[in-house]
Structures are given as structure tokens and as C-alpha cells.
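explain this:

___
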Amino acid sequence: MDISILHKDTDYQLVGVDRKKLSLQGETDTVDLPRKKAGQIRLVPKTRMSEHIAGVGEIQAIQKNSPLTDPKLVWQSAVSKMENDARIQEDQVRANVYARMQAAAMSGGNTTAVFNQGIDEIESAMEQTSRIEDFAQQMPADMKAPFDAVQLTFDLQLPPGLEAPYLVAFVDYQEPGKQPIIRRPIFRELDAKETNIQTITIDEDGFPLDFTLLGTSVAVYDGNQEIATIRSPKIVGLPRSEAIKFMRNARANKSPSGSLAAAPIPLFAPSNFLNSLDSKILDTQIEVSTDANGRAQSLKIISPQKSKLESDVRRLLLDVPFYPALESGQPIKSKVTLKIRDFIS
């Protein structure tokens, strides 16, 4: 990460040091600062990160209403329907009166009586329409509705040279009256050509009404390599339904029974996960038994060396659905023999 020196609210670069002074180079001037005054400066990260790392700023997260629950939009939709229904009813009353007038005239009936009654009906319908239109302008100021959506806003800067960058924003929340914390991932593709600072805004709805927002985080990837995060790099523990949905749609290939499907483990593993495992672990041959939902139920080491599995490897293999056996694109109950290297690489 590049470092700037902030002196009197101006960014400088350190270009020289001797026993008496620091030489600082700014965009328009050069400052020689006595070393005894070095305490007046502070080091700050530059806005642009180094070429290998993306920069993710602080997340501003708010709960909000989706269009389906926004009080103003719901009010407008309701009164708009009421106004439309009233106008239709008014037109129907007019049409009915005209039809009765015509029938009375053709049969020699009392058209005056029909007209007088019809005028009363039309005026009543018009008054109803007018009352509804007046009512529509009087939306209560205190109308509220439970939140069912979030908005995340943060600054992002990508380094040059990326191929297929995307971000994963995680929203941790609880449903009303329930204890388990749910982590919902939100995926967004990024433009590799956009290397300037950009403000990302993510609007996502579909959360339970009146949910509790506990926290948010963002990680940025290029392929399967994590290139930025504002939190712990460990990205395991997706909600099962979200993990299955993402893996099935984006990663799992259609494969015959017993064959190895695409494995997205590096996407959810800690940073440098593969580099932390030695070859003895990676070459361990295991037998994986899965249930009908594609979740690993048990592991059996069948390699002669009987290498001990690291706890994080075992946890990843057992906790994340990975579809080692698929039939017509759907997980099936099966047993598959493979090396850990084949599975997570």
C-alpha cells in the first residue's frame, strides 16, 4: 500500500531525509520540515491501493422498504386504484342513465323522471370520485411499514489487470423472534476496466418483514482469488439455501453419477487456503458420502499414509454442499472417491 504524508491538510511524498530535516514533495510545492517538527505530520494510506490489491471503503448500510412495502408507494398504489375504480364506476353510471333515457324515449315513457333520477345518480358518483381524489391527497405523515430491504453504499477501487472481477456483499441478519444468524450473500459483477474510485450502491430486497440487521461485509474477487476484503478473510458459513442456489446455478456442471462436479471451494475458503495445505494433505485420498441434497455426510480416509485431515479442511468438506455426484444437474445420494487436491483445486 502506498503511503502519503499529511501536513497541514495537504498530501506530500517523502523525497529526502537528513539529520536536520524532512523534504516533502507536493503537487505544487516542496516543503522542508525540521525533524523536530515531525510530530506535526501523520502517515495515511493513499487513496489508490497497490497494483495487487483492491480497495474497499467503509460500508454504509441502512434498512429500508422495498417498493412492495414502501408506505408512500403502497399508499399511491392503493389510492390510484380507488380513483380509477371510482372513475370507471362514474362512467358506468352515466352509460346506464343514457341507456335508460334512450329506452324511455323509444317506448314513449316518462323521460323527465328518468332524467331527474339519472342526474342524481351521476352527481352522487361524481361526488364519490371527488371525495376519493381529496382523500388521496391526504397521506398520513406517520405511515410506517416494517423494513424488508437493505441498501449498501461503499467506495471501491480496482487495480489494473483484472480479468473477471466481482464482489460478494454479505448481510448478516435475524428473522423476528428467531435466534439463528443468517448470512445472505449478494453477488455483483464488476467492470475490470474501471480502475478509478467508484461508489457502489447495492439495493437488495426480499428480507423477512421487520428483520434485524446485524452487520455487513464485502469481499472482492478476480476468479477464485480474493483481492480485497474489509473483514476477516474467512468466507465460510453461507446459509445452506443460498449456497445451494449459487453452486447449482453458477458452479455445478451436469455430470453423470459418480463423476466429479465443478468445485467452488476456493470461493468460500479463507484467503491463501490452498497455499496453507502441504502436499501430503492435498494428496490424501478420501471417500465422501453425500445425502440426497448433495451435502457431505461423512469422510473416510483411504490413502495408505492415513494423513490426518486439518480441522479446517474437514469443516469445509462437511459443511459446504459441493455436489460430487450429479444426475441431470441435480444432486443425488452417492459415494465418491477422490483426492482432496481434486476436490478443492
